[in-house]
Design a protein that fits this description.
This protein is an alpha+beta fold. It is built from three helices and five strands, in the order βααββββα. It has a single domain, classed as RelE-like (YaeB-like fold). The protein has a five-stranded mixed β-sheet.
């Protein structure tokens, strides 16, 4: 099946992913892979502030943005265990910072 989107990860998101236990790694990876295949029809996607979105399988959050310069690319900027009902602003801001740094590093290459 052809992917609708391709996920890329900031170094911070990869580090956070590696810090999760296997069960939560499997959950978030399955959710991201599902989103790559079915796109915006995926039910566990929420639009947040600042042009940010979250993929939210049970117990884990991954914040991402669409890459406006490269169609069909999403950049995962932050992965965290879900602790509250609402997405904490500090995590959202950190995700945006991570994504912007990642995009700058792509331009430098």
């Amino acid at each position: 099946m052809e992917k609708v989107f391709i996920a890329e990860y900031t170094p911070e998101a990869l580090e956070q992913f590696n810090d999760l236990d296997i069960k939560n790694q499997d959950k978030i990876l399955a959710a991201i892979k599902t989103f790559e295949i079915i796109g915006t029809k995926y039910k566990n996607i929420n639009q947040l502030d600042y042009g940010l979105y979250e993929i939210k399988p049970k117990g884990v959050r991954a914040y991402f943005k669409y890459d406006e310069n490269r169609k069909k690319i999403i950049i995962i900027g932050f992965i965290i265990l879900k602790q509250t009902q609402k997405a904490p602003k500090r995590y959202m801001k950190q995700a945006i910072k991570n994504i912007e740094n990642y995009k700058r590093s792509l331009k430098d290459d």
